[in-house]
Automatic annotation (TrEMBL):
Cited InterPro entries: Orn_Lys_Arg_decarboxylase-I, Prn/Lys/Arg_de-COase_C, Prn/Lys/Arg_de-COase_C_sf
Protein name as it appears in the record: Orn/Lys/Arg decarboxylase C-terminal domain-containing protein
Superkingdom, natural source: Eukaryota
Key words of the record: Pyridoxal phosphate
């Protein structure tokens, strides 16, 4: 506890330079990542001037290698003991923080280099392109969640659920944000997204059928 308090005090007294070493290390890592074939890096230039990427985050895409973020996370954890901060269907976020040392950054870079070299030579099957933008930005609610929770329910095949009213909350992890809530009308966009992230390796929380062959819907009144 005393060590933690001393660290916090050190940051408080040296706010302007507290993260300089870690930010410089992150910048070096980004320069290396940009040189690795098949790897994409999210940078400030990817956004309008009003937005910016956290300088201590390495946001890396692997779609040019035919790999999802879930697959890469599993490979790097198993082969290189590299743990990411956040994994998604098309990329991974690694976090550098206070007291992150060069050895830690080099573990990440070495693991990604090895992975890229391995999969760059493998002919990857063409994958179906799926819109992975948030499918709930145009959500339609047919019932309030409370009424949907107490409504009579039945199971239907997920491909036959289009237009039905959801009877359960479904949240792919990571990131663990609900994609479908009780009372929401199920759309083709939502079904495609759920099946896509499931096929990429995401864990499906909340669904009565974690394999998503079926889904719980509210019975029509």
């Amino acid at each position: 506890m005393l060590l933690e308090l001393n660290s916090v005090r050190d940051i408080a007294f040296n706010q302007e330079i507290a993260f300089n070493q870690e930010i410089a290390l992150a910048d070096e890592a980004k320069c290396v990542l940009k040189q690795i074939p098949g790897i994409s890096l999210l940078e400030n230039s990817s956004f309008p001037a009003s937005l910016a990427v956290d300088p201590l985050r390495l946001i890396v895409g692997f779609w040019n290698l035919g790999l999802s973020g879930y697959e890469v996370d599993e490979i790097l954890y198993k082969d290189d003991d590299v743990i990411c901060e956040l994994v998604g269907s098309i990329g991974i976020t690694y976090a550098l923080n206070l007291r992150t040392c060069r050895e830690h950054a080099e573990m990440i870079l070495l693991g990604i280099k090895r992975l890229a070299e391995t999969y760059a030579s493998i002919q990857q099957p063409e994958k179906k392109v799926v819109n992975v933008d948030a499918p709930f930005d145009d959500m339609i609610m047919s019932l309030i969640p409370r009424d949907a929770f107490f409504a009579s329910k039945r199971k239907v095949a997920i491909r036959e659920s289009i237009g039905e009213v959801a009877g359960e909350l479904i949240s792919p992890y990571p990131p663990g944000i609900p994609i479908l809530i009780p009372g929401e009308v199920i759309t083709q966009k939502i079904v495609d997204y759920l099946l896509h992230v499931r096929s990429e390796g995401a864990q499906i929380n909340g669904a009565s059928d974690s394999l998503l062959s079926s889904i719980v819907v509210c019975c029509k009144l």
